[in-house]
Amino acid sequence: MTDNETISRLQQQAAQARAAILSMTTLAASGHPGGSMSSIDILLALYSLIKHDPANPWLEDRDRIVVSNGHISPGVYAALGLSGYHDLDEAVSQFRLAGSIYEGHIEREVAGVEWSSGNLGQGLSAAAGMALASRIKNVPYRVWTLMGDGEQQKGQISEARRFAIKYGLNNLAAIVDYNRLQISGNIDAVMPQNIRRNWESDGWKVLEIDGHDFAAIFSALASVQDAGLPTMILAHTVMGKGVPFMEDQAKYHGSALSEEQLDEALKILDQPNPLDKYRKLRESFQAPDPEPDHSIFELNCSLQPGQPTVYDKTTDNRSAWGAAIADLARINSEDPTPIVVVDCDLMGSVKTGDFAKDKPGRFIQAGIMEHNAAVLSGALSSCGIQTFWADFGMFGLDEVYNLQRLNDINHTNLKVALTHVGLDVGEDGKTHQCIDYIGLLRNLFSFRLICPADPNQTDRVIRWLIDKPGNYVVTMGRSKLPVIRGEDGQPFYGLGYSFQYGRADILRPGNKATLFVTGTPAANAVEAVDKLREQGLFLQLVYVSSPLQIDSETLVQAARKGLIFSVEDHNVHSGLGSVVADRMVALRLSAPLVKIGVQGYCGSGSSKDLYQAAGLDAASIAERVLAELKNIG
Ligand SMILES: Cc1ncc(C[n+]2csc(CCOP(=O)(O)OP(=O)(O)O)c2C)c(N)n1
User: Fold this and answer.
1) Whether residues 429 and 552 fall in one domain
2) Which residue minimizes the CA distance to atom 25 of ligand 1?
3) Which of 116, 174, 354, 598 could form a disulfide with 145 if both were Cys (CB 3.0 to 4.6 A apart)?
4) Is 119 in the pocket of ligand 1 (CB under 6 A)?
5) Cα–Cα distance between 460 and 432 in angstroms, integer?
6) What's the CA-to-centroid distance between 390 and ligand 1, angstroms?
7) What is the CA radius of gyration of the chain?
8) What domain range is 553 assigned to?
9) What pLDDT, on the 0 to 100 scale, is given for residue 632?
10) Would the CB of 120 count as within 6 Å of ligand 1?
11) Do 62 and 171 fall within a single domain?
């Protein structure tokens, strides 16, 4: 039971917070006051209850509050300010101002914000990841998720609910701000649903309370802690609560008061009107230089790479990845940083079976719920866990592109192992051919992409990756691939090789022209170049394992030699060829470039047949090279 003193303190804070919400939105002439005011009592109660230290916001065993409806940023900034995380005047005066951390939707750069959000429907997945991390790391804490009621329409929430029940995440709770309004009006008119029954049918316990009654809120929060199963509190609230002319008005979901209305509202709330002071602070604001330090979000670990495995016969890259991750988990089993693998019902195909067998407690079977898996994996990786999510390219990237973008924004440390990329997917056809991964990942500022050429390079890349912070995607096809060999016939990526991000590998020296190749067609390109050598035509062949960061020196030398080819089983408009073209322009290089790649969706067929049809088998590559060389004379 909470004492009257606490409740009356919170009531005073609630009036201050409402004044701050209204002031900052009026000052910025935009933002979301309505939901901020309906949820502010819950936020203040939560921050007053949880285990945290605003002076040390990143303590590992802190309780976490994930705000899924990130548009209620005014409410979050007000609650954090009043809880001691920052100077509230600073947040009010800088709200939505260019260069400020107090963005329109909440960002992790603001201490106390556990997860950047704005795209609705994903916060429960992030919270589930954090709740699971508590168990995996054996660090006890609770995770609370605040969500909107309109937001409940998103399907990903049901994925996260099921996941939480399957994994018994009893340290996880959700609170729904049930103000019955969303942008377009009443939630039942926009999209009818039975929120309570939906949660209960997935196995959650549901409590209903008045979300503006502090005693009721505290009693619900207390009973959640003893519930013994994931619990949702359906908090009946009023949009715009506290200012009668705003109450229950959908338009205040996303519109600010005029200055006159603000003045009136502040009188109702019995709060001063310091708008002039805020305006002056806003005018004098200077964006911090340098930018916020993101290194606090980095995974810090010393996992060991173990001994390389050398493959000397045809092997699929995905098996090499599966063997490497199982070995890494074994040799690092005593390390304080856990290695976790997340799967979406594709264990056999993405080759994580050995890992799952050896480390069942570290293998997370997330089902066919990729949107949940993407965010959950990102959140796990943000909690000091070296997290690998293994999936087909189509599902681990294309299907969830915006959620990987969200991971990027959240500075996570996720490793995504994508198999079945390019045309090399077996006979599954075009829905399964991930031929746009380079193009997609070019848009994500922190993600790095590694495309190993053969099983040896795959092994080396996974071992290199094991202690790296940040977000990486590693791509692999499906087929067994020949080992790439040097001119001496020895494995090119053998024992003497060590991986370096961004370094291109010269597989064959030559002076006539240069082929840049990435992905599964590597072996075909080697065969083509070796055939042309037999005819006395010496082409330089460069393998690009880091297509987002092309080695400038190699490109400069290639341009000096003349004709350049890019070879990839990727959409020819957005892949390696485009990266090469961009870099050439940036480096002011002038050389003809021929892009050999996928020109349209391909159908079903064996990989061999598909590569032939796309002009990516050895004979077609050689033919095309000869034709282009003849063309330029
Ligand atoms: C995935 C996604 N779709 C659409 C939006 C745009 N949007 C922002 S808030 C909102 C309505 C949210 O309603 P509710 O959850 O009830 O929040 P409240 O109106 O109570 O603040 C929408 C559609 C979004 N942010 N994310």
Assistant:
1) no
2) 119
3) 174
4) yes
5) 27
6) 31
7) 28
8) 505-632
9) 84
10) yes
11) yes
